[in-house]
Every structure is written in structure tokens, then in C-alpha cells.
Amino acid sequence: MLLRRVLIVEDDLDTREMLARFLEIAGYHVTQAANGVEALHVLRSGVHASVILLDLMMPVMDGWQFRAAQRRDAALSHIPVVVVTAAGPRERVPPIEADAWLPKPIDLDGLLETLDAFCPV
Questions:
Q1: CA nearest neighbour of 64 among 98, 111, 30, 90
Q2: Considering only Cβ atoms within 10 Å of each terminal Cβ, which end of the chain, N or C, has fewer?
Q3: Taking the model in full, what pTM does it have?
């Protein structure tokens, strides 16, 4: 059985930990990062991810900057990205190439459905 691995990139500690606990209970292996710089470091240190849950508005390196750096890195560019944001309706947010999009507050059933598409059992 393949491990279903999720990297959560979210600056809000409570949100990040709540998502991590929920996904761990649902059977996912979870790694956390507080911003884009930390996420790149985690991924480049050898941590594997089946999918990345990416907040957009973060200090240090925001979601757009992270996604641009990830797409430039051949070793990381293949990892699907699911944007999870309170930035507003997708059509009002500066474009970002993402594989899926979930608004905050997060519908947990929708989150599992989305992740299951990228991490089949």
C-alpha cells in the first residue's frame, strides 16, 4: 500500500494543526510547514509528498512565491498543489497554477474528496 502523504503549508498554527490531526485520523501521513521557505526546505530535505495543501497569504514566502519556486524545481514540480485560502473567490485572487482550489473555512468532506483524487487508497 502506498503512503498517502500530505504537506500542509499554512502559517496559522491552529489551522495547520487542526488539518494535520484531521488528516492523520483519516489515514494520511502529514508533514507541516509554516511558510513557503520552510516548505521548500522540507521537500528538498527528502520528505516526500503526494499532494501539497497550500495557503496563499503567508509571511516570509507566500503561496504564489512558493508555487513559482516549486514549478522551477524539476524534483518538486510534479507534486500536485491544492490551494486552501480565505483570500476570496478564485476569480478575484491573482492567478496561481494549482491542481485544485478549496475556500476557507474548509469543508472537511470536500477536503477528503479532493485529496482522495490525488492520493488513491
A1: 98
A2: N
A3: 0.92
| Superfamily designation of domain 5-118 | Response regulator (3.40.50.2300)
Angle at 49 between CA 45 and CA 54, to 5 degrees: 100
DSSP state of 95: P
pLDDT, tens only, 67-82: 999 999 999 999 999 9
Q: What are the boundaries of each domain within the chain?
A: 5-118
Report in angstroms the alpha-carbon separations of 2 from 41, 47, 67.
23, 15, 25
Tell me how far CA of residue 33 lies from CA of 25, 42, 48, 109, 121, in angstroms: 19, 8, 13, 23, 24
